[in-house]
Design a protein that fits this description.
Blueprint (H helix, E strand, L loop, with lengths): L18 H5 L30 H5 L3 E4 L2 E5 L3 E12 L2 E11 L4 E12 L2 E11 L4 E5 L2 E4 L4 E4 L2 E6 L2 E9 L12 E11 L4 E11 L2 E11 L8 E2 L3 E5 L3 E5 L2 E6 L2 E10 L3 E11 L3 E13 L4 E13 L5 E9 L4 H4 L11 E12 L2 E12 L13 H9 L5 E14 L2 E13 L12 E11 L2 E2 L3 E16 L9 E15 L1 E7 L2 E16 L13 E2 L13 E2 L7 E13 L6 E12 L19 E7 L5 E10 L4 E14 L2 E10 L3 E13 L24 E11 L4 E12 L3 E11 L5 E11 L3 E4 L3 H7 L21
Length: about 800
């Protein structure tokens, strides 16, 4: 099954548009209908545009320049020698030009060159009734700045300013190098263009790459602008170890200006036929999309497979915001067989929820219902070496509850110098259907979290004393160990938080910098309250890091509150550019001290160690082209590092980046990750140069393009094996880009899915094959596209 574009319904999907789609700008259809934009923006324009139709067009003045001009007033004007004719947004140059005033007919011969809306057309002869834009152009060649491509035609007939016919038209972004045909060429025998209907019909369209026909159609319909139009999109081809070779051809259906759908029939060599579908809608008060991937029978397992996703956002009466998310699949192995088809960071935990929020003065009220689909097989062991996104769902299964429903309200108010915060909720907790555990409690909980604080804030320091109450009441479906079906508790907490910011101007390695010194102290006192007999619906241990160490509770959620009599002390220093404020260096250290043993802990046994682990933080961009960052958790008790993450990136120029990351969680994982994008052979563009990217291609004797290597490797040092990896090459020939990327994604200790992604990008036309760009951007820090969506204007000589 294949993933499809998930964009705004007003944005058309990428499609293969023949040369006539670019020729649209020649016939007066450059202003084809677009979706209205309610915003106002100023844009830089390199062309002069003026109305060409109706009474406004008739009133436009004519400017005529030449070495020699002669004629009869109001009847005929003849210009010879570098003749130039201007009217509105049209600039026409030729060796000889005559203009018949009564007929509004311009006849140009010899080195004819016409520019309109930034696009350039040239040829031996042009006859044009200017105001009606009626006439013909013999043997024209053309270049379109919007696409960075052009071509030629035997003849173009302009029926009027909304209709035209091109005979023998070609289209390419490859420059002529004297060696024959360009690398890719789209040719048609005849193209009819109707700009008012935004429709073009090409007859005998053939796309050739390296002289070999790769696509063709006897009759092809397409849009003449960026406006949406129903039709077939370029085919997709995927190859992976689970499903084998997969081919699909999407069909785009433009239902209405605010609705569209994409149907994607496909076939897999191993699994059989499939149908993917996406429906998008956009209304003034709501928007959303629905996806359904269906495989009637998977030949590998002999059953039906499907995945359903729904996203909906709406604005209701009284500023009420509604959010709906539904994600369900047919079976537990779906995430392994189709790992890229699930739009979820936790592919083994699929959330479906309905959430409504409404402001009421200073209050925010909300109602929520959430359910989970847990994808797990009892016989499949947990693999600690797999990526976090894969391993995390398995670890969360034992703590998973559904909320049916969750009803609450919260507020944050100021009364003079005091801040008052309150949150109250009612929750009904139930187990997911997939989890069978009779011992796990279910029931309802009502809780209230209230706090009052009096902050003192100055430019150099802050001091905030705070009193917090955590109250909860439970009503359970089954009795507790002591026979009770209901229980309640109230736990107070007092905290005192103070932070300072001190600055000085100094020098570092010969450069002027501003250094800060930012100490912080947090004291917390929470009395012990026995919570061992109470259910735990939503509490888990917080990750131990620079953010969580400055909180008053080591648990997330509501059900568990750690007792504490402790102080946390830390200090951070930064080096800043005094002019821009950019951060060059950051260093920090923090540690917690317990005045008494902590009896309620995530691990169970009390904490008796007075000093906690030390957290160290560092990052630097002080050295050009280098970025260094890291964090270390050091245990004084064992004298060793418990956890650490250290990253290093080297980026000396465009399309050059190498990064390495080391991750250690002692006793769990130890991983080394390496990612890169780097030129292997050929010239690399200089960002400071104004030359277009297509100019990279040189003559037939020189280098034809540039090879780039891309990849990411995640190596488990504990298991001595590669877990996830991406390896590939990109070839930029200037007018086309080829990509070959292999991806290996772990789905278990001894299971993995391998995909091969092949893509051919014809610059100025379309991308064919399977798209690896999102995979590269998601997995390689600093990765950059070799080609922008819209190339800059160029003066390259194109194939004629």
């Amino acid at each position: 099954m294949l993933r499809r574009s998930r964009t705004d319904p007003r944005t058309p999907p990428a499609r293969l548009a023949p040369v006539a789609a670019a020729l649209a700008m020649l016939g007066g259809g450059a202003g084809a209908q677009q979706v209205p934009d309610t915003g106002i923006a100023l844009e830089l324009s390199t062309t002069l545009r003026a109305p060409l139709r109706g009474d406004a067009g008739k009133k436009l003045p004519i400017v005529l320049l030449a070495r020699e001009i002669r004629g009869r007033p109001d009847l005929e004007t003849i210009a010879e020698g570098d003749a130039e004719f201007r009217r509105g947004g049209i600039v026409l140059r030729a060796d000889r030009l005559s203009y018949d005033h009564p007929e509004d007919l311009a006849i140009a011969r010899g080195s004819v060159r016409i520019s309109r809306d930034g696009n350039i057309y040239s040829g031996p002869e042009l006859q044009l009734r200017v105001e009606r834009f009626e006439g013909f152009f013999l043997n024209p060649s053309y270049y379109f700045s919007r696409t960075g491509a052009g071509g030629s035609a035997q003849r173009i007939d302009f029926i009027d300013d909304q209709r035209a016919v091109a005979i023998g038209a070609t289209y390419t972004s490859c420059p002529a190098d004297g060696s024959g045909d360009p690398d890719w060429l789209l040719s048609t025998s005849r193209v009819k263009m109707d700009f008012e209907a935004n429709e073009g019909i090409a007859e005998g369209a053939v796309l050739r790459f390296m002289g070999v026909p790769i696509l063709g159609a006897p009759v092809l319909s397409f849009p003449l602008s960026d406006a949406r139009k129903s039709g077939w999109l370029p085919p997709n081809i995927n190859l992976d170890s689970k499903s084998g070779l997969q081919t699909s051809v999407p069909y785009y259906w433009n239902i209405a200006p605010n609705r569209d759908a994409t149907l994607t029939p496909g076939i897999s060599v191993k699994r059989g036929v499939s149908l993917g579908s996406e429906f998008r809608y956009l209304e003034p008060r709501y928007t959303g999309k629905v996806n359904l991937d269906l495989m009637p029978e998977d030949r590998l397992i002999g059953r039906e497979r499907h995945a359903f996703a729904w996203q909906h956002d709406a604005s209701l009466i009284g500023d009420t915001q509604l959010r709906a998310r539904v994600l369900r699949v047919s079976d537990n192995d779906y995430w392994k067989d189709f790992p890229r088809d699930l739009p979820s960071l936790t592919p083994r935990l699929l959330l479906s929820e309905l959430n409504a929020t409404r402001p009421l003065g200073d209050w925010t009220t909300y109602v929520r219902a959430m359910r989970w689909q847990v994808l797990q097989n009892a016989e499949s062991p947990i693999d600690p070496a797999v990526s976090t996104a894969q391993a995390q769902p398995q670890a969360l299964v034992t703590h998973l509850y559904e909320r049916l429903p969750q009803i609450g309200a919260r507020t944050l108010r100021r009364y003079g110098d005091f801040e008052l915060a309150f949150e109250g909720e009612f929750n009904r907790f139930a187990k997911p259907v997939e989890i069978v555990d009779p011992a796990r409690p279910t029931g309802t909980r009502v809780h209230a979290l209230a706090s009052i604080a009096r902050p003192w804030i100055t430019p150099g320091w802050t001091l905030t004393p705070r009193m917090t109450l955590n109250a909860a009441s439970y009503s359970l479906d089954r009795p507790l160990e002591d026979g009770r079906r209901s229980a309640s508790r109230v736990i107070p907490t007092f905290s005192l938080d103070s932070a300072w910011v001190l600055e000085r101007d100094t020098t570092w390695l010969g450069r002027a910098v501003r250094q800060t010194l930012e100490p912080r102290l947090l004291y917390v006192n929470t009395p012990f309250r026995d919570q061992s007999g109470l259910p735990n619906f939503d509490s888990a241990a917080k990750d131990f890091n620079f953010e969580s160490i400055y909180t008053d509770n080591v648990f997330s959620g509501v059900d568990r509150v750690s007792d504490a009599n402790q102080i946390t002390a830390g200090i951070t220093t930064r080096l800043l550019d005094p002019l821009t404020g950019a951060e060059a260096v950051r260093l920090g250290i923090v540690q917690r001290y317990l005045f008494r043993d902590q009896r309620i802990t995530p691990e169970g046994p009390p904490f008796t160690q007075r000093f906690s682990d030390v957290l160290l933080l560092g990052s630097s961009t002080l050295f050009p082209r280098w970025t260094i960052d890291g964090s270390v958790q050091y245990s004084p008790d064992i004298g060793r590092t418990v956890r650490s993450i250290v990253g290093l990136r080297y980026s000396p120029g465009p399309f050059r980046t190498v990064n390495a990351t080391y991750r250690l969680a002692r006793g769990l994982t130890e991983q080394l990750e390496l990612g890169w994008q780097w030129p292997l052979y050929g010239p690399v563009p200089d960002e400071s140069s104004a030359a277009p990217r297509s100019a990279l291609r040189t003559d037939a004797k020189g280098c034809k393009g540039t090879w780039y290597g891309v990849g990411r490797i995640n190596y488990s040092m504990r298991d001595s094996r590669i877990t996830d990896s991406i390896m590939g090459v990109e070839y930029d020939a200037g007018c086309w880009i080829g990509r070959v990327v292999a991806e290996r994604l772990s789905t278990g200790r001894s299971e993995a899915t391998t995909r091969l992604l092949l893509q051919l990008e014809l610059v100025g036309l379309s991308r064919l094959g399977s798209n690896p760009l999102q995979v590269l951007k998601d997995n390689i820090p600093g990765y950059r596209l070799l080609r922008d969506d819209r190339p800059a204007p160029a003066t390259t000589t194109f194939y004629d």
